[in-house]
Amino acid sequence: MTKQNLMVSDANPALNMAISASVSNSSIFTATAHKPLPMPSAYIPITRRKVLKNLEINACVDSMRASSPTHPKSTPSRAEEHSSWILHHPSALDMFEQIIDASKGKQIVMFLDYDGTLSPIVNDPDRAFMSDQMRKTVRKLAMSFPTAIVTGRCRDKVYSFVRLAELYYAGSHGMDITGPTTSSKYNKGSKAEAILFQPANEFLPMIDEVYRVLVEKTKSTPGAMVENNKFCVSVHYRCVDEKKWSELAHQVKSVLKEYPKLRLTQGRKVFEIRPTIKWDKGKALEFLLESLGFANCADVFPVYIGDDRTDEDAFKKLRDRGQGLGILVSKFPRDTCASYSLQEPEEVKDFLQRLVEWKQASQRTCSK
Ligand SMILES: [Mg+2]
């Protein structure tokens, strides 16, 4: 009888586990049964820590797949799943009239994520440009309602894409907030850019350091791209072969374990490394509502549109406040606290355009 043993050991003997896989002389060994095996009893030492680490990395890769669905499957069960999901998260375009009815008598305030919401997800994050048509629509939106961009990106970077001075910007997951730099009806005339809020200032040197370490660490993974977003670091894997996701997850986690004051979250094809402070897009939404004078205000109707897991903090905040609504941008069914859905940035543009047209029509009616 040939016996192969796989030993799983740990520094603490009490925690040692041994898995013995006994393989009898079955037909697959018949041809060589008469020859002595070079290693009759092969012990492969694997530390328990390593096993747990592998499980952790596998869970991380599963999570990467869940937050970055790329393979629509058109099986009947998938189609049923999608129909059922749409019933619970109907299209915001189909439900436009109902949404307007719910906002009657209230001030609509718009919150927009950037990547995957106003711009398509593209391979090079530095080229995630929004269309001129989308820019025109967002400009008209900002003339109709207070409007904020809430993004994981560095504020300066997202501003270079959007180029609209009329908006509020909450960069680095809301850790870097500024108001409009041009006067509008929602900005009391100040043209000077004023930093409204930067709750993670003390983390700047650490973020710079972890950015440099991650650039070095992920060099060996083709397609990985590290971006310094000032108050957080993004590791994009849009261009990384799915077979290499596990390797990348391992690299990122090995760096992060040296920085207990930073935490790892996941977005759509991106790891986000950010300070452990209790601040997220939901808190940024609340902060902006207060800054706009809507603290404890019943007649405000915030609308948040986003496609990322990190946007769920804002969807949940709205649900908890019982005010306004969240709209998830996704072609695929996903667990979400958003009430409605839109499939892609093009639909977001159509929805924003309808809001603008409705506002203009209602203003015309009022002025008659
Ligand atoms: Mg996004």
Distance between the termini: 96 Å
**What is the H level of CATH, i.e. the homologous superfamily of the largest domain?**
HAD superfamily/HAD-like
> Which term fits the overall shape?
globular
Largest sheet: 8 strands, mixed
Structural class: alpha/beta
Rg, Cα atoms, Å: 26 Å
Number of structurally distinct domains: 2
Q: What name does CATH use for the topology of the largest domain?
A: Rossmann fold
**Low-pLDDT ranges:** 1-44
Mean pLDDT: 84
Ions, cofactors and other bound molecules: magnesium ion
The CATH C-level name of the largest domain is Alpha Beta
CATH architecture call of the largest domain:
3-Layer(aba) Sandwich
Number of helices: 11
Q: Order of helices and strands, N to C? A: EEHEHHHEHEHEEEHEEHEEHEHEEH
Strand content: 15-25%
Q: Can you tell me about this structure?
A:
With 368 residues, the protein is α/β, with parallel strands linked by helices. It is built from 11 helices and 15 strands. The protein folds into 2 domains: 66 residues, no CATH class; 213 residues, Rossmann fold (3-Layer(aba) Sandwich). α5 runs parallel beside α11, α7 runs antiparallel to α8 and α9 crosses α10. The radius of gyration is 26 Å and the shape is globular. 38% of the residues are buried. The site of magnesium ion (MG) has 8 residues, from loops.
